[in-house]
Design brief:
The complex is a heterotrimer of chains A (300), B (323) and C (537). With 300 residues, chain A is mainly alpha-helical. Helix content of chain A is 71%, strand content 0%. Chain A has a single domain, classed as MetI-like fold (Orthogonal Bundle). Chain B has two domains: 75 residues, no CATH class; 232 residues, MetI-like fold (Orthogonal Bundle). Helices cover 78% and strands 0% of the residues of chain B. Chain B contains 15 helices and no strands. Chain B is flat and about 85 Å long. With 537 residues, chain C is α/β, with parallel strands linked by helices. Helices cover 31% and strands 20% of the residues of chain C. The chains are: A mainly alpha (300), B mainly alpha (323), C alpha/beta (537). Chains in contact: A-B, A-C, B-C. At the B-C interface, helix 2, helix 3, helix 5, helix 7 and helix 12 of B face strand 9, helix 7, helix 14 and strand 14 of C.
Chain lengths: 300, 323, 537
């Protein structure tokens, strides 16, 4: 279940082309990437919901209201209520916040650390690269769930620790891809030229190598967000993720949802759909980003 | 070639050692141990004396480095020791689950292949049509739907639909019977998780099939074949598909390795007594010996699969060997 | 909705004893023999050694292989005082020499599964292992037998226990289902740890196989010492850690019963789906859920803060709603609600936080917090990673505290981490805590509230409470015990609020109606010998 192996991304050096105006680029994107556009819309809806959560719903996502427990969907509660009488739609809207926060933070930190390590490893090469590669091997081979279990057991549950648990496995995956792109760049004469001009290592890394591995970096980030949301849900399902009363989709599927799946199916169905849609959206969007940024595929 | 193989073999050692160090110390950082959970877990009275006795029995009172040496040396000599929770040999505990995990992995992989190859091919041939979009959306949905949710829905669907159809609810068996003892019971238990997992894993393979096929379809010899006036179907089946299979096989191979021990959540949902469930249980029980052994087995399988893939590639593409 | 339910209150059971026996004889005529009982178990089996384990995950599959000296009456398991002989003969001894000497006559027709005949020496060796284990040998319930001075065989079929002081908790302790009787021969020849991984008992079933993580299988023991029993040909205890799956297993008839308990909603679903194919048995449960504040930390060392946290809880309202979604129900004090020593409703209403005027309680709580300088209290609430009932009640608690302005962040930990935080590291603000015992034995059970107890995590010393307990131990009559118990209760949970009571658990066992002869007990540890269970198929 918890896999990140699908990120077999072959990055190429981005050729900078002339930039057409924004609107026509968007239209162009919609035409070339109908699936990506669907994904983008889902992502935007999620962002909208999480930003305006307080305005969108009159209910408190955390307060118990036992008199309304397990109410079927009606006009007051469009998706029904859960076993504590909380409005499910409200919890799903607020849950988007949790999901996006965990997803973006984990993806951004994971990919950034991976970027830094990958570029450094490629640039310095030699022993550093060799040792670094072995360490990355260990983390790649290490079962993700054990890492997550260990992190949560050591530091306790809670949003930050869930993010840590999800971020760690992302680092080597991104570092690997970035390293191979960076290695290719290192061999290009203009880096030698920069060296010959006496530029410092940091300048060469920041000005020349990093911009050139931005494509794989962005591809990794978009791929990670969806995975992070799914991982968070899985960890919550195993009881190791975000905890009550914080509204989170995976948590909503744990415990109660399984118990009431029959007599109150709405408790289990909506959060499942929310997770699926979100991950679906981010994956479609991520694919489109990859196709757009990867010139090898674009030329098709 | 031999030199390359030797070099790759040699590079496996630090990875194994690293994984061993990581898991060993990670587990010791988690507060509590198996004795506490055994004795205090039911909420009954506990004497510290009893916990000390239990620790001594399990060798948890020895210095860390001694414990580590015993574990790593044991692993190198294929002596995995005994489970701290049940007191049984770990090789026995693993063997018991291995069969089931292997069978589910094989069945899921077959399902994935059966879904991925036809869909990937259609998708590539009909590139950028609605068929292509539909297939891609279908396969991405496989990654997007949480496996535990899908599992719950499958079981519930079975219970409700069988009750509606036959009057009595039916659910898959909840205990494992080897396939040679009772194939029907065996398959009726394992087919559901296998299909659910296979669908999930078909996504990557579908995408791989599609892009590999697209690449091959642009090659000169395909153009030649087309120019010769060969039928499109024949071109795809005889020429293109065959030549685009290597990356697909690789992806499937790596995922197969991952499936062994990676089905943590699916096994929970379907109550499968496999390696994934054992994993969660052993960590939650703080069964250090068993968790360590499991991690080392999973890491070894992973490293070995990668090794085989690398060798295969090196053999096919001599440039890699000398890089 | 109406459910077929069997609920016995203690006085009721005593009053109806006659009609029950009559019903049993009427039933006896149509008892059907044979069949395999499949049941699901939600916890894992550690070792097979009952003397060192404490989980129902071991009791449910392993108990049927063993006998004990005495046991809770399987026809009347609701009574906390009705014990009958298992391996002994005649009645359970009443005690001689001022209740300091108990002589047990041992049955003569008993054989271990390996053919060795059972004598008094086996009983003696077993209890010596439990009460006076040799150096380095574990025994989880040694502390229950502090009153025992010696155990000796006083004949080939007679065992004598001598006590240091009379104690009402001796007989209930002997009746604990963990006290499996082992053969002296095994202990002598194979050592004291052999039973961790091997089974040789005198129980109604013989061990066939154990597939770790999957199931335990037992088959009928032909030479069982109770003639005509067991009725079953065998049983299979199937491991299923996910509650939803255990439920579905009963629905899909992959299992006939689960012995721990389901939440009410699950019962309703089963009954709705299967109608009279499902029988429901319900009972109060000898487990209670508490919140323990860590008195080593400020401001929880202040009784006013602890009182406020208790006053915030709407116990009666919580009971009404939580009993629909969690395995808790009864509002009670420190004693199992159905026991003669338990507080009545009137007595309960006088305790801190038990009053029915919730608004007034919460106002008082806020006042106390203000007085203690702990307004806007923020705390971390340590909970255990188990849904039923811990996490469900946890969500309720957080909401209750929020209403007096206390903000609690929930930390849910897997069981080992949870215990490490409670026991070794004392690293928590407030924590969920529970008292869950097998045989109902209030005088032993309430030691949980003593700061000096091994299973108390509050980090306090309360000499007054300890002195009250000393008097309770020495109290001769039940009337006297009852008075002192009220004093103890008031001190522990009302004046000092060392622990904040939530609700007592409530055991609900919906099972396939064809399972007969099993009666629900007030504990999931009790009445699991399975020798009188039969299948009406």
């Amino acid at each position: 279940m918890v896999t990140t192996s699908e990120i077999a991304v072959e990055a190429q050096i981005e050729e900078l082309a002339d930039k057409p105006p924004l609107m026509s680029r968007i239209r162009d994107f919609g035409r070339r990437q109908p699936l990506g556009s669907v994904g983008l819309i889902i992502v935007l809806v999620m962002i909208f919901a999480s930003v305006f959560a307080t305005v969108l719903t009159p209910y408190d996502p955390e307060a118990n209201a036992f008199e309304f427990m397990l109410t079927p969907p009606n006009f007051d509660y469009l998706m029904g209520t859960d076993q504590f009488g909380r409005d499910i739609l409200t919890r799903i809207i607020y849950g988007a916040r949790t999901a996006l926060f965990v997803g973006f933070t984990a993806a951004f930190i994971g990919a950034t650390v991976g970027l830094v390590l990958g570029v450094a490893s490629a640039f310095f090469g030699g022993k550093f690269d060799l040792i670094f590669q072995r360490v990355m091997d260990v983390f790649m081979a290490f079962p993700l769930i054990i890492l997550a279990l260990a992190v949560v057991s050591i530091f306790g549950t809670g949003v930050q620790n869930v993010i840590i648990a999800i971020t760690i496995p992302f680092i080597p995956r991104c570092a690997r891809v970035v390293r191979s792109s960076a290695l290719a760049i290192r061999e290009i004469p203009y880096i030698d030229a920069a060296r010959a001009n006496g530029f410092s290592n940091s300048r060469i890394i920041m000005r020349h190598m990093v911009p050139n591995v931005m494509a794989p970096f962005l591809i990794m980030i978009t791929a990670f967000v969806g995975q992070a949301i799914l991982l968070e849900a899985s960890l919550s399902y195993l009881g190791l993720g975000v905890q009550e009363p914080i509204p989170a989709w995976g948590l909503m599927l744990q415990g109660g949802a399984e118990e009431y799946v029959e007599s109150a199916p709405w408790v289990a169905i909506w959060p499942g759909i929310a997770i699926s849609l979100a991950v679906f959206g981010f994956n479609l969007f991520g694919d489109a980003v990859r196709d757009t940024l990867d010139p090898k595929l674009r030329s098709q | 070639m031999w030199q390359y193989i030797l070099k790759r073999l040699f590079l496996m050692i630090p990875t194994l050692l690293g994984a061993a160090i990581l898991i060993f110390f990670l587990l010791r950082l988690i507060p509590g141990d198996v004795c506490e959970i055994k004795l205090a877990g039911a909420g009954l009275y506990v004497d510290q004396e009893q916990i000390d006795i239990c620790r001594k029995d399990l060798g948890l009172d020895k210095p860390m480095l001694v414990q580590f040496w015993n574990f790593f040396f044991g692993f190198l000599t294929f002596d995995l020791g005994k489970s701290m929770w049940t007191g049984k040999e770990i090789t026995f505990e693993l063997g018991l689950r291995f069969e089931l995990s292997l069978q589910v992995a094989i069945m899921a992989t077959l399902t994935a292949i059966l879904i991925a190859i036809p869909l990937g091919t259609i998708s590539a041939v009909k590139q950028n049509t609605w068929i292509d979009y539909f297939v891609r959306a279908f396969s991405i949905a496989g990654i997007a739907i949480p496996s535990f949710w899908l599992g719950i829905m499958i079981i519930l669907g079975l219970l409700i639909s069988t009750q509606a159809l036959f009057g009595t609810p039916w659910m898959p068996p909840i205990e494992y019977v080897p396939i040679w003892e009772d194939p029907l019971a065996n398959l009726s238990q394992l087919i559901w998780p296998a299909v659910a997992t296979g669908y999930r894993y078909s996504a990557v393979a579908t995408r791989m099939t599609r892009s590999a096929l697209l690449e091959v379809l642009r090659e000169d010899y395909i153009r030649t074949a087309r120019a010769k006036g060969l039928m499109e179907k024949l071109i795809i089946n005889r020429h293109a598909l065959k030549n685009s299979m290597l990356p697909v096989v690789t992806v499937i191979g790596i995922e197969f390795a991952f499936l062994m021990g990676g089905l943590v959540v699916t096994e929970q949902v379907f109550n499968l007594n496999g390696l994934g469930k054992l994993f969660v249980e052993s960590v939650l029980n703080q069964d250090f010996a068993l968790t360590q052994a499991l991690v080392m087995v999973v890491v070894s399988v992973f490293i070995f699969t990668n090794f085989v893939v690398d060798i295969l590639y090196a053999w096919l593409d001599p440039r890699i060997r000398y890089a | 909705m109406k459910f077929p339910s069997l609920k016995f209150a203690v006085p009721l059971a005593a009053g109806l004893a006659l009609s029950f026996t009559m019903a049993d004889t009427a039933q006896a005529q149509k008892i059907k023999r044979g069949g395999i009982l499949n049941f699901v178990v939600g916890s894992k089996i550690p070792s097979y050694d009952g003397h060192i384990e404490g989980t129902f995950g071991m009791i449910h599959p392993i108990r049927p292989f063993y006998s004990t000296l005495i046991r809770v009456n399987p026809d009347n398991p609701q009574s906390p005082t009705d014990f009958i002989c298992d391996l002994c003969e005649g009645g359970v001894p009443k005690g001689d020499d001022g209740f300091t000497k108990y002589v047990f006559k041992i049955r003569k027709n008993v054989k271990f599964h390996d053919g060795t005949p059972l004598t008094a020496d086996d009983i003696t060796a077993t209890y010596k292992k439990i009460i006076f284990p040799p150096e380095g040998i574990a025994s989880a319930r040694k502390a229950f037998f502090k009153m025992v001075d010696s155990v000796e065989s006083t004949g080939k079929y007679e065992v004598t226990f001598k006590l240091k002081f009379p104690s009402g908790s001796f007989i209930p302790s002997v009746a604990m289902p963990f006290n499996f009787v082992y053969s002296k021969k095994d202990l002598d020849e194979k050592g004291y740890t052999w039973h961790k991984t091997n089974i040789n008992g005198t129980g109604a079933f013989r061990f066939v196989q154990h597939q770790p993580g999957s199931f335990v299988e037992g088959k009928r023991y032909e030479n069982y010492h109770i003639k005509g029993k067991p009725y079953l040909d065998g049983f299979k205890a199937i491991s299923a850690p996910k509650m939803a799956l255990r439920l579905q297993a009963i629905r899909g008839d992959r299992a006939a019963i689960e012995f721990r308990g389901f939440p009410p909603k699950a019962r309703d679903d089963l009954v709705k789906a299967l109608g009279d194919k499902i029988t429901v048995q319900e009972s109060d449960w000898n487990c209670a859920l508490y919140v323990t504040p860590n008195q080593r930390r400020k401001p929880f060392d202040d009784a006013r803060v602890r009182k406020a946290l208790s006053l915030a809880l709407d116990r009666w309202g919580g009971s009404k709603y939580l009993s629909k979604i969690a395995i808790v129900k009864t509002v009670g004090g420190v004693v199992f609600p159905n026991h003669p020593l338990a507080a009545t409703r009137e007595e309960l209403l006088k305790l801190t936080g038990y009053g029915t005027d919730v608004a007034a309680n919460r106002k008082e709580a806020k006042r106390l917090l203000k007085e203690a300088g702990a307004e806007n209290l923020k705390m971390v609430f340590n909970n255990r990673g188990v849904d039923q009932p811990y996490k469900v009640v946890g969500t309720w608690l957080i909401d209750q505290w929020k209403q007096i302005g206390v903000e609690a962040e929930q930390q849910v930990n897997p069981s080992p981490v949870f215990y490490a935080k409670l026991r070794k590291k004392s690293d928590f603000d407030v924590s969920i805590d529970f008292n869950c015992q097998s045989v109902v034995n209030p005088i032993a059970d309430v030691t949980k509230f003593l700061g000096s107890a091994g299973n108390n995590y509050g980090g306090y010393k309360d000499e007054v409470l300890e002195k009250i307990y000393d008097r309770l131990l020495r109290a001769g009559t039940e009337k006297e015990q009852r008075v002192i118990m009220r004093e103890f209760e008031t001190r522990a949970i009302s004046d000092q609020v060392h622990m904040i009571p939530t609700l007592w658990w409530y055991k609900i066992n919906p099972h396939r109606s064809y399972v007969k002869g099993w009666k629900i007990a007030p504990s999931h540890y009790l009445n699991q010998a399975l020798d009188q269970v039969w299948l009406d198929k």
